[in-house]
Amino acid sequence: MSSTPDVPPLADPDFAPTRGFPVRESALLIAAAVFQLLILAGMIAAATTARHGADRMLVQVIPLDPRDMFRGEYVILSYGFSRVPAGGVEGLPGPYTTDNQSEWHGRAVFVPLTPIEGREDRYTSGLPSVTRPPRGVSFLQGTLETPSEIDYGIETFYVQEGGGPPYEAAARERKLWAELAVNRHGHASVTGLVIDQQPTPAEPSQPQP
Question: Which pTM was predicted?
Answer without folding.
Answer: 0.67
